[in-house]
Amino acid sequence: MKHITFYLDFISPYAYLAFEKLPVALMGHSYSVTYKPILFAALLKHHGQLGPAEIPDKRDWTYRQVLWQAHTQGLDLQMPASHPFNPLGLLRLAVASQAQGEPNRYVCETLFRHVWRGGAEASDPARLEALTAQLNPPRLASDPTVKDQLKAHTDEALALGVFGVPTLAVDGKLFWGFDALPMLAAYLSGDPWFDANWDSVASVAQGIRR
Prior knowledge:
Radius of gyration: 17 Å
Strand order of the largest sheet: 2-1-3-4
Structural class: alpha+beta
Strand content: 5-15%
Distance between the termini: 43 Å
Low-confidence stretches: none
Number of helices: 9
CATH architecture: 3-Layer(aba) Sandwich
């Protein structure tokens, strides 16, 4: 059985799509999953990048593509009232739900659907309060251990080379993005392509640096 670590941030529509389609994409494979919330903004800062929603023309395209992909996949998705938003409250709630800061699938599903279904304000305090009552985590989201675990998850992801969400890690390999699910399924199937090609990209010379 392979073990997958799913690095996610509820702010990402691609993470939502990947989360929803993961069981279908990996049907027939033997695997387990650990879900680890991380702060996407910290990845962007570390790598010196803007998020897709921070570049005006890219922002519009990203939202169109996400809506289209949800449509073609038969998934329910509506953009929240505003985006990007501050996801810390949702991330900390997820971490607070389990002693090691690793929420189960039900918790992640509840939080993702809070953001990506219904078109409401994802970070609205009243909605977050109701969500907290629904999930009834054993720790407060404001608990220092929760904040520390969220940071530890993010630092762990950065140390592995994670640069975006969703990223699914297995056997030291990182699969980034919703569209990487078929690639991940092929790896789990033992496709020999990975032995011949996975590491070969490191030999490509970088011609220009900016």
